[in-house]
Amino acid sequence: MSLKIGIVEKMPGYHEIALDGRLDTETYAELEKAATGLLAGNTRGIRLDMAKVSYISSMGLRVVMKIMKDLKARKGAFQLTNLQPQIKKVFDIAAALPPQTVFSTIEEADAYFDAMQKKALGQDPDLE
Predict the structure, then answer these.
(1) What spatial distance separates the first Cα and last Cα of the chain, rounded to whole Å?
(2) pTM greater than 0.90
(3) 128 and 117 in contact (C-beta within 8 Å)?
(4) Of 22, 33, 38, 128, which one has the fewest beta carbons inside 10 Å?
């Protein structure tokens, strides 16, 4: 599945990026490219609207955190809105993780996040 990205300048220097689809190892680069383009200019704030994001992998999480870090470095504003329950679960887990490496591979991290998202949706990952 692809990722649709809509960008609207809400006011000078402040943009909303609306995502639709999966933010995973196949699509994260699209968001990274769009955000890099915005951050190359005079962007002072980005809001990510995640209302239509159905899944996020560790690479998707990484690009979101990179956008946040880049904005923080320039004293910009970052907002994350409309998280679906399974997506919120991934961000909750990521915030609770210690800063050292927890997963030995991207695949291991993605498998863990996949299971947690299915659990948040009431699906049993062991039955699929």
Answers:
(1) 19
(2) no
(3) no
(4) 128
